[in-house]
Amino acid sequence: STWGSRRKKTRWWWLVGSFPPRCHLGPQAPPAGSASYGQSWIFNGRRKNEEGVEMNMNAILEEILIKRSQQKKRTSPLNYKERLFVLTKSMLAYYEGRPEKKYRKGSVDISKIKCVETVKNEDIVIPCQNKYPFQVVYDNSTLYIFAPTTHSRDQWVRNLKEEIKSNNNIMVKYHPKFWTDGIYQCCRQTEKLAPGCEKYNLFENGVKVVPSLMTDKHKFQRRPPPPIPPEEAEEEEEVVIAMYDFEPTEPHDLRLERGQEYIVIEKNDIHWWKAKDKYGSQGYIPSNYVTGKKSNSLEQFEWYCRNLNRSQAEQLLRNEDKEGGFMVRDSSQPGLYTVSLYAKFGGEGLSGIRHYHIKETMTSQKQYYLAEKHLFDSIPELIDYHKHNAAGLVTRLRYPVTPKVKPSPTTAGFSYEKWEINPAELTFMRELGSGLFGVVRLGKWRAQYKVAIKAIREGAMYEEDFIEEAKVMMKLTHPKLVQLYGVCTQQRPIYIVTEFMEHGCLLNYLRQRRGHFTKDNLLTMCQDVSEGMEYLERNSFIHRDLAARNCLVNESGVVKVSDFGMTRYVLDDQYTSSSGAKFPVKWCPPEVFNYSRFSSKSDVWSFGVLMWEVFTEGKMPFETNTNYEVVTMITQGHRLFRPKLASKNIYGLMVMCWHEKPEGRPTFQDLLHRIECTAEDSSS
Asked: Which residues form the SH2 domain (predicted)?
């Protein structure tokens, strides 16, 4: 149909314009005729719609942000959802995915907005990745929106204030902090419609822009009422499926049974959600134990192996030695998947492994296919079809193969908001070793869960500072990080309780098994560490002491990063320079031993040294040199030699990490991708 014939039906387009399906983020160039400001776009000029008809671009700002549900009903769930926000002269609208009417989830008429301001949030943990909140107050509601950066938030607040400056309903006082848990965090008032507690100035200089007085000629003319915005759709109940069993450890926890459905009620904490089971029982569950029923997550399927590279997949399939053994794993290309399939050829016992990339169509409604173009709307449908039909594969998918032990993931603490552990609940067992802080022992929590217990030696660290930081560190949870479960701070010595890793530190693991590792084994260790470090980098957390001695190995041979951020609290001459900075010189870049400048890029340098440790199977870097000599050598451009077990490509990655300038080094995201690609190539 033509635009004209659809004009009435799509009348809303004249308000919000026609926009690209998603906000332009990252290194992409802005659309022609537009100007970029940070991560938001301010559009000028005109563009063509899908039918090729030119239309006015009325959008002032457009960006993917996160909104908190407004909970207009008492029973409405509290959750956080990503939405595409679009600001025009007449409304602030938000969409699910793309700016089309059928995807619009809600809107606010500009004329009804009474207050736009940032939210002071020093007392509240924000349970989503965007950490910069602002509020839009209209009618009897408050919309809390979360921007990815301060610059993004400032753009939205400034532009919204500019649009509402002529409104005659601007508030005199407002609430500078969140309404949460039935109370305003600023003034502790428990009535949601309670008057504000702090003076509100529309602009920072305190000057409120007053609408210009109308002339007598127009004074008594009736203005047409603004268009009535559509009612905001109530958020649907979020149903999740348990991927693992979970046994409650506290009265406020909820038991999870693998395969059962649960309704999410609140998401106040990113790691612990409040949920309800089919019997109506409510409690907290670990968010990494469930997956959305409507999501495209593959975690619930037994044939999906998330953290396996090509060589690991081949080893598992060969060990199983079954015709049609298969698994689906993450491809080295982010967001894509690979089917690894084992087949026997002829009657002579010959066998082989094939790897098939799951391909996607480029059509608007994405579909999936393997060797031949039998298209399916989802990956589970594709797998189910090929279980019964080879259809171009070397054999059909007969038998899902997974690691024998698929343990439940670690949780951020033992329960919701439980970081202080009662020492009476700990059972101390054999000594595992000693480190900078004191003795480490194997133990059990409540005589059931194996843990590692570090007893902090008196005077070994800045205890008060660490106790505060421990609360933050507990929120860091990833399959390739050693999980901090909690601390015992009510007595001395302080205890730090962490995940137990059966094979101990990576350095000893390498030395004790020297000569028994394949190159693929060593590369997998580096990949494990890079995954953990990419997570820390993404969460703006600096390790400061990345080395093989600070990584641990579990019973499955998985390497996890440990002791991240701990060196800031250590009192030890080995880690302290004359200026008072703490660092082990042989793992440090020039900006650290010269200026004590730590960053994710200084961690990248240390990761290059860790890779060298791995591929030398535990040798000491600069073994025959003193710290002073190492500083001189690094400053003059000397670098560690290429290990015998490292290929040119692997050594090239190390050298990239050792670039003199921080900005010349790759990010952990880039390193992880390069290592994944190298792992795929080495086993092809």
From this structure: 303-401
